Amino acid sequence: ADDQWGQRLRAFVVCSGESRPDEAELQELVRDRLARYKVPREVLFIDQLPRNATGKVLRRELSSD
Question: E strands, 1-65, where?
Fold first, then answer.
């Protein structure tokens, strides 16, 4: 969380295959397509998204990192 603005936007990226873009490339890509306030300040690369038994993403587990 950000002291001034509250929550800060983070992107969690799961890469497929061998190639892995770097954080700056991803931020530049989304900066061209999204409003400024929607661009994540942080990009985290993870192996897989945490999911429950029905396949839904467990957002709380992501935010606890």
Answer: 10-13, 42-45
Tell me the pLDDT tens digit for each residue of 34-43: 998 889 989 9
* Alpha carbons 27 and 35: distance in angstroms, whole number: 12
Residue 17 tokens, joined: 């295959």
- Pairing of the two strands 10-13 and 42-45: parallel
DSSP lists the bridge partners of residue 57 as 51
Architecture per CATH, 10-63: 2-Layer Sandwich (3.30)
Bridge partners (DSSP) of residue 51 are 57
